[in-house]
Structure formats: structure tokens, C-alpha cells
Amino acid sequence: MHLEEQMKKISRRMDVARKRGKADLTIRNARLVNVFLRTEELSDVAVCDGIVAGTYPAGEGPEAEREIDAAGLYMIPGLIDAHTHVEMAYVSAVPFAEGVLPWGTTTVVMDPHDTVNVMGNEGMALLADEFCKTPLKVVLMTPPCVPSAPALEDAGFEVTLDSLKESRNIPLVKGIAETMDFGRVLAAEPELLSILAYGRENELLFDGHAPGVTGCDAMAYFGTGPIRTDHESVTVDEMYEKYGMGVYVVIRRGSLAEPASAGELVKRLTDTSRLLLSTDGCINVTDMVHRGHLNYALRQIVAEGVDPMTAVQMATINVARAHRIDHRVGAVAPGYEADLVLVEDLKDFNTKMVFVDGKEIPRDLKLPRVTYPQKALNSISLPELTPADLKVSAPEGKDRVKVRVLTAIDQTVATTLDELVLPVKDGCVESDTQQDALKAVTLERYGRGKGSSVGFVRGYDLKKGAIAGSIGQDTQNMIAVGVSDEDICAAVNAVTEMQGGVVLVSEGKVIAKIAMPIFGIMSDKSFADLEEDFQALQKAYEQLGGTLSDAVFTLSLLLTLVVIPDGGLSNRGLVDVMKGCFVDVVAE
Predict the structure, then answer these.
(1) CA distance linking residue 516 with residue 263, whole number of Å
(2) pLDDT at 414 (0 to 100)
(3) Peptide bond preceding 44: is omega within 30 degrees of 0, i.e. cis?
(4) Tell me: the pLDDT tens digits for 275-320?
(5) Out of 66, 307, 351, 521, which residue is the most buried by the measure of CB atoms under 10 Å away?
């Protein structure tokens, strides 16, 4: 924008503020939440050129081209998700914006590390370009740990200091995403240490990721300098300790059961200005359609005992300050961008109207779709999988062996590593449906020749069939779980053929599927349309005996993730996360 044009707009806003001119929009009789004073007062709010020109006692705001009577609804600032991943919603930028904006999420701090795992900076640039075509405001954080644990897994791309520097030229990139491999940090691994030193030198904010890291290790991790947030604490004591170190503690809420009470933490703090709220991408498609997004997270922490004013601050001004955008967003006040949300109350946060830059967001927001290049739509390069590829050899002469099994804990991001005795047939370890111990395989899917590994998983409770998907966090490698080797192969091969998504197979036939062609991990369908696909697959899974509340989410987030305790199955082998090493599947 030319300087002269900006000067005219500033002058016009000043006139409107003094009620010497007509505003573009005046919302009257709203219970305005002031995040600076922690008050609410019946007010008029005037908007000019997408900026809040002024706030006034009810009935005293200036005339406007459009006037809306809020009739006592509460007005809060546009909500800011402190940390999320668009890919975990299984949709690309346009449908994501369509889905979250009508619920009141107007800004997101976005970590595209799944996209980068698939296609590096080139993929991140494509995603950023798509976000630029939406009204959603995005603070893009470039990931420093891709793959999340390079000593334990392989992806389609590896981040180095040089590639990270290059990524800062991509539109929307403002900071550095979660430093997931806390083991590499604590070991002072040279490449990651150089990235941290670069961040310190350039005053960049890094997001943190340090579950269970406390005491001297926590001081070492956050003492690196640039890492200033953490969203992976597992107890209130851990959160409290990190808060005392000056860390911005991020509370995660969504569709999962979280182990630590936000209400209990808030009661222990005399200052809450460094508490932030995020979804971390952990809201399933059904909840996104029917319960909301960050307003749903607000509802949860208020129900846990967090004062509503504190809760609103956690989802607005606190996040804006943490990410140095508090001069633009995070409050309804003169000079701030007019991102406004009208809600029924400060308990359930049911959204009635949303404005971005003073423009109303329709409830049924529809945006033009973006066409991705063929390279982004053909990201899976796997040879045909055969049952011979899935053999797990047992010690000679054994008919039963002790095996380490990865157990998924439903509705969480956690797993446990357990031991079971499983049957042996023809010298190979077999699945055992009576113990819910099913064979699983993770395959490097990018054609880089990095191999695969086979293990055993509990939690799926399938009596027959198999499920496979190209969505294994964080590498987005191929992951499959099933009763028979034949069905596992059929499921993996079907996902490869359709170039991304999730497939459920029974007796060699595909009985349900969800196509995700963009980078092999995302769809351009609306959340409402995608929900139909998810419900159909979940129903078919349950008919095969499955008991998980969300079979796809568990496949994506729990089984291959090697940076959240206790275990994960990477393409290289079974991982003990806290020890940071591989362990044998057969334990004897």
C-alpha cells in the first residue's frame, strides 16, 4: 500500500473515532470483553477500513454504512490457535479455513511439518500459497525437526540449517516450529545445535516439544535460548515448573482426553499471561463439524474451572504477545484489526457471528479450490507389498515367544510398550486376536529405499481385516495394522494405488476408503463431506470388531510417532521413546 493511501486511511479512522465521519461498520449493544482490563461492558464498536476505529458506551458509537444490533451478545477478539497442524485435520488450507473461521478462529500459528516431511520447502511454499488465498490469518512456523527424530526414522525430506534459512523466504513464515527431537537437543547434536544458535542470533521464537522433560534436562532444553513455548507437558507439576522457567505453557484441548487439568494449573498461578491455548490439530473431523474449533477448546477449559476472562486471554492476547503480533491482533481496541467474534456467553462460546478485518464470515463459507501440481499429488512410491515382506522370525524351536507390543491408549496421544506371549507358526510370530495383538508395518513411502519394519500393536481389536494409511506421524510414512498378512498387503497396495489416504480391507476387498491425494495426507473436501467418509470407514471398522473411538486418528498419530512416550513403530524399527533407542520386537 502506498504511503499516501495509508495516511488517508489513518486520517479517516481518526475522524470516525471522534465521530466526525461515518464508519464502515458499527456493532451496537455488544458485551465487549476487554482483554487488557479483564472486564466486560455493554458497548458499541466502530470499524473503518478493516480496523477498529473506536469502542464506545452502548448507544454512543458513530453512524455507519452497516449497523448491527448485537442485542447483548458477548464480543471477544478473533481467536488465535497457539499451535496447530492443518494436515492433522486431513484437509488442505482452503477447506481448513472454511471449517474454522465460522467458529471464530481467525488466526492460527501453523506448523506444517507434515507437509515438509513429504515435500520439503517446495511443499510448504505450495501450502502457504493456498493459505494466502483465504481470509484466515496464518503465522507459519518453519519446522526444525524433519524428520522428527532422524536417528530413528526416515521421511521424504531432511531439514538442515541451510534448508531452514531458505524456508524463511516463504510467504507467511514468521518463526520456527516445535523442536520435537528433545533428545537431539539434550545431546547437543551439532546440526540441531546450529539451528538453535541461528535462532538465538536472529531473535527467532522457537516452539518447544518436551514431554516429561523436567529438572536439569528442562533447564538445558529451554536454556538453549530460542525455545520459548511447550505444549507437551503431561502433569500440572511439569507445567508449573516450566512456567517458572519463563516458558509460555500451551494448554492443548480438542477431541482427546488430556492428563493435566487447566483449572488446577490456573489456581496455582498468580500470573497467567504466559498461558496459551491450542488445538495442536487434535480435533477430529466430526467435532470440527458439530462442536467447533478453538471455541470448543475454550468451552473445555472453562468447564475445568478456568475463569472465563483468563480463558479468553489464553486464546487471544496471550498468544498474540507470545508470537509478537499483539500490535495487530488479539484484542478489540482502537488500531487493532477488526477480527471480532460474537458469542452467546462465556461458558459454551457458541458462535453467532464472526468478522475478519470487519468483513462478516458466512456460516456456510465457500472458497475457490486450489489446483496442486502433479508432483504434490503423486507422492507415494512403493513396490507391491507381499506377505513375504511381513514375516517376523522367531527363535528356532519355539512355538510361543515373548514379544514387545505397542499399545495405543484410546482418545490420547500416548502409547505403552508391553510384553505378551504370542504364537509361532512355521518359524514366524503370528497375530493373536484373542489378546488383541495385531501385526503392524511401517514403510518408507517416498521411494528412497529406506525400508520397512514389522511389529505388533494392541488397541485396534480387529477380528478380521486390516487398515492402512499414508498418514503416519510425523514422517507421513505408510502404516498398516491387520489380522492377516494378506489383508495388510491388500490395504497398503490400495493406498499406494490411489496415491494417498486410508483404506479398510476385509478378505482382500476394500470395504471403505478416504482419499487424501494432496501430499498423500490431505483432501480438498469440506469438513462436512469428509465427515461422511470418516463415519463410513469408522462404521465398517467397528463391524470388523474394532473398538477404538477413532481408528484413523490412532493410525495417524499414535503408532508411528517416536517423540511421544512410550513407543512408536518407525520404518526402521520399534522405538522406546524415553530411551531414544530401538528395541527388539521379539524379547527373548
Answers:
(1) 38
(2) 86
(3) no
(4) 999 999 999 999 999 999 999 999 999 999 999 999 999 999 999 9
(5) 521
DSSP, res 539: H
- For cell 511454499, name the residue: 125
Mean pLDDT of 200-225: 93
| C-alpha cell read off for 36 | 487488557
CA dist 220 and 216 (Å) reads 6
Dmax (CA) for the chain in angstroms is: 93
Q: Give the alpha-carbon dihedral of 519, 524, 529, 534, to 10 degrees.
A: 10
* pLDDT tens column, 330-385: 999 999 999 999 999 999 999 999 999 999 999 999 999 999 999 999 999 999 99
* pLDDT band with cut points at 50, 70 and 90 for residue 1: low
- Percent with pLDDT over 70 in the chain: 100
Residue 489's SS3 state is helix
The CATH architecture one would assign to domain 78-329 is Alpha-Beta Barrel (3.20)
For 299, phi then psi, to 5°, come to -55, -40
pLDDT tens across 271-287, in order? 999 999 999 999 999 99
H helix runs in 436-484, sequence order: none
Beta bridge partners of 454: 441
Angle at 316 between CA 556 and CA 524, to 5 degrees: 35
DSSP reduced 3-state for 587 = coil
Contact status, residue 74 vs residue 345, Cβ threshold 8 Å: yes
Residue pair 142/162 in contact (Cβ under 8 Å)? The answer is no
| pLDDT (0 to 100) of residue 558 | 87
Task: Compute how many other C-beta atoms are within 10 angstroms of the C-beta atom of residue 576.
Answer: 17
**Could you read off the pLDDT of 57-85 as tens digits, one per residue?**
999 999 999 999 999 999 999 999 999 99
**Cβ(305)–Cβ(266) under 8 Å?**
yes
- Domains in the chain: boundaries: 3-72, 78-329, 376-583
Q: Which of 271, 268, 261 is nearest to 304 (CA)?
A: 261
Q: How much is the average pLDDT of 507-525?
A: 98
- Per residue, what are the HEC states of 1-14? CCHHHHHHHHHHHH
**Helix (H, G, I), strand (E, B), or coil: what is residue 167?**
helix
Task: Please give the CATH superfamily to which domain 3-72 belongs.
Answer: Urease, subunit C, domain 1 (2.30.40.10)
367-371: Cβ within 8 A, 24+ apart: 367/94, 367/97, 367/98, 367/133, 367/134, 368/94, 368/133, 369/94, 369/524, 370/92, 370/93, 370/94, 370/129, 370/130, 370/133, 370/524
Is there a common fold for 3-72 and 78-329? Answer: no
How confident is the model at residue 564, as a pLDDT?
85
Mean pLDDT of the chain: 96
Q: Which of 509, 209, 519, 571 is nearest to 376 (CA)?
A: 519
Task: State how far Cα 364 lies from the chain centre.
Answer: 23
User: Do the Cβ atoms of 462 and 433 come closer than 8 Å?
Assistant: yes
